[in-house]
Design goal:
Layout (H helix, E strand, L loop, with lengths): L7 H21 L15 E2 L1 E2 L26 H6 L10 E4 L14 H13 L2 E4 L1 H5 L10 E8 L19 H11 L8 E4 L9 H12 L4 E4 L12 H18 L6 E3 L14 E4 L2 E4 L2 E3 L22 E2 L12 H10 L14 E3 L15 E3 L1
Parallel strand pairs: 3-5, 3-12, 4-5, 5-6, 6-7, 8-11, 13-14
Antiparallel strand pairs: 1-2, 9-10
Length: 372
């Protein structure tokens, strides 16, 4: 990907510092209050609220996360849809969703809804972090993948109303609202959780919540047990932090994590400790390790792609440091530079790119190149 702005590494470091400070603030602030009429799974709100069902709720009929049937993309077809699977992919990073922002990285429900509707209008189709890291972004031809990621497993990410449907102003509720309004907007996202997924304390409630999400195409994965600053921990402690979440997720009935979001975006001194390891007989092995980031990720098919340090973009406006490094800036930049953006060909068996970008594809994918 062409870098439009110099000093990327310096700004990335500054961005990580800002995120770290903001997350620390979030950890000491009280949880955001639930919107009126909303019952959090496992929480009290005057009377006990029903936990989320582990099986899909038939009422109302929620939009499906199924991918479209694959096609076979010829070079001419790839040219017609302007496919470029060597382009950049925006991976958006969200934290708390609250009516009143108490930290710089908070977003209001209205702000999240507005951003997702913008993505839908602009032709973006959500994929999970797991689908990105495993290169299974099998979205329709001519569309653009976007990865929606939510850190910390906050109660504002997922809760159900009394009728068993996602609460209106939670992340999941907003995603489904946008998917219903824009049928091409696939309702999936990645939730990276700690030891109390979605603020739930009882394991039975945690199980119902993560199974509800997993059964509908959402990804629930590892964000460490207690959200520590990993560079300050020895190797064994890092392994414990990651393995304990894997052990929990296994008990809750979801697959092993294939992706990890680093707390504060901070890489351990020895990078390999955040990639694979073992603690008390519980092992972990990730296929994608995600930073706090400051720019879109390169395509997972190009030579420059590093699955051990994947860039993300903070969801935010254009004030202060975010003037050129958060989602409002980058989504505008990608719209103005469409040739730099990952555009799908609809064919899982081919990697379609303009002929001039052929040399940038990684050696493992040379046999799949469909150049035009």
């Amino acid at each position: 990907m062409r870098r439009p702005i110099p000093l990327t590494q310096i700004i990335m470091l500054a961005n990580v510092v800002v995120v770290a400070v903001a997350v620390v603030v979030l950890m000491v602030l009280p949880p955001a209050s639930a919107p009126p009429g909303t019952a959090r799974p496992g929480a009290s709100a005057g009377s006990p609220s029903p936990p989320p069902s582990a099986s899909p709720s038939p009422m109302p009929d929620l939009p499906s996360a199924e991918l479209p049937p694959p096609i076979t993309a010829s070079a001419e077809f790839a040219r017609q849809v302007k496919a470029n699977e060597a382009g950049a992919v925006p991976i958006l990073m969200y934290h708390r969703i609250t009516r009143k922002r108490l930290a710089s990285i908070d977003r209001t429900p209205a702000q999240v809804r507005k951003e997702l509707e913008r993505l839908a209008r602009d032709g973006y189709v959500p994929v999970t972090a797991r689908e990105f890291a495993t290169r299974k972004m099998d979205i329709p031809a001519g569309k653009y993948p976007v990865v929606l990621t939510f850190d910390d497993g906050h109660p504002s990410h997922f809760a159900l109303d009394a009728d068993g449907t996602p609460a209106k102003d939670t992340a999941v509720g907003i995603i489904y609202q946008v998917a219903a309004k824009y049928p091409g907007f696939r309702p999936v996202a990645t939730f990276w959780v700690n030891r109390h997924p979605f603020g739930l304390r009882e394991e039975k409630d945690q199980e119902r919540a993560v199974r509800w999400l997993a059964s509908r195409g959402f990804e629930v994965a590892n964000h460490t047990w207690s959200h520590p600053h990993l560079p300050g921990l020895p190797k064994k402690k890092i392994a414990e932090q990651l393995a304990r979440v894997e052990r929990l997720l296994k008990r809750l009935g979801v697959p092993p994590s294939e992706t990890l979001a680093l707390p504060f975006g901070a890489m351990p001194r020895k990078r390999s400790t955040a990639q694979s390891g073992k603690w008390h007989g519980v092992s972990y092995r990730f296929k994608g390790v995600f930073l706090a980031g400051a720019e879109p990720s390169v395509s997972p098919f190009v030579k420059d792609y590093d699955w051990r340090a994947i860039q993300r973009i903070q969801s935010n406006g254009r004030k202060g440091e975010c003037r050129k490094w958060c989602s409002e800036y980058w989504l505008g930049w990608l719209n103005k530079h469409p040739r730099e953006r990952y555009t799908a060909d609809g064919d899982p068996d081919r990697i379609s790119v303009p002929r001039g970008l052929r040399s940038g594809i990684g050696a493992d994918w040379k046999q799949k190149i469909n150049a035009y």
